[in-house]
Amino acid sequence: MIIGVYGYIGAGKTSSCEYLQNKYHFTYLNADKIAKEIMQDPTVLCFLEQTFPGIIIDGVLNRDCLRTIIFTNPVANNKLNNYLWPKVNQQIITIINNNPNQNFLVEAIGLSTLALSFTAKIFITASKENIIARINARDQQPSDQTEQLLKIQETFFKQIKPDYKIITNKSLPELYQKLDKIMEEILGDDE
User: Fold this and answer.
1) Distance between CA atoms of 185 and 74, rounded to whole angstroms?
2) For residue range 4-29, what is the model confidence (pLDDT) as tens digits?
3) Would the keyword ATP-binding turn up in this protein's UniProt record (predicted)?
4) DSSP assignments along 52-118, one per residue
5) Rounded CA separation 94/27 (Å)
6) Domains along the sequence of the chain with CATH
7) Neighbours of 11 (CB within 10 A)
8) Phi and psi at residue 144, to the nearest 5°
9) CB count in 10 Å sphere of residue 175
10) Which of 18-22, 143-147, 158-162 tops mean pLDDT?
11) What is the mean pLDDT of the chain?
């Protein structure tokens, strides 16, 4: 069983996946974390330096610089995604194929780019105001950068039809209740 989880930055995807992982014993694959690991590969670092000059300092990726480029330049964001997502996709497929008896949660903004057959797709969202407040508190990121990223992310989500949608404007316990209800439907008598 593979459940895909996607949604806007700061909407509660990671909190949702960590809860589902712990309560339902799913193996949790976070595409962003996998992408960060892939971006340490020397070949990938070379691509990044050639595509975004000055982004590698002393052989290390400057994540703040990369974040600024991605958040403010949709064309650059697209170049990065076209290069990186096939590698992320392959890594996720390899992990799943090597563990056929496990159930997986795959958290990925680019869920539609993954060559996987999902049992269900859960879209996690919140009001724009809540998202901006959460990101400002968590990342101390300027609101205009967050708004730009939300626009970029929205283009990804147009390609995905969710089986379930959760709006996370309230508390974590309420989020967990909604997740449990969804899992009851997905798992049925298997629970």
Assistant:
1) 37
2) 999 887 888 889 999 999 999 999 99
3) yes
4) STT-EETTEE-HHHHHHHHHH-HHHHHHHHHHHHHHHHHHHHHHHHT-TTS-EEEE-TTGGGS----
5) 14
6) 2-186 (3.40.50.300)
7) 26
8) -65, -35
9) 21
10) 18-22
11) 87
The amino acid that residue 30 corresponds to is N
Which amino acid is located at 89 in the chain? N
pLDDT in tens, 104-123: 999 987 788 788 999 999 99
Sign (positive or negative) of CA dihedral 151, 152, 156, 158:
positive
What length is written for the chain? 191
The residues that bridge with 30 in the sheet, in sequence order, are 107
Q: Give the H/E segment covering residue 5.
A: strand 2-7
How far apart CA 47 and CA 142 sit, in angstroms, is: 28
Q: Which amino acid type is present at position 4?
A: G
- Spatial separation of the C-alpha atoms in residues 64 and 98, rounded to whole Å: 34
What is the amino acid identity at position 94?
T
Rounded CA separation 77/51 (Å): 11
Question: Which residue type does 167 have?
Answer: I
- Both tokens of 31, joined, read 């595409």
Taking the C-alpha atoms of residue 52 and residue 84, their distance in angstroms, rounded to an integer, is 14
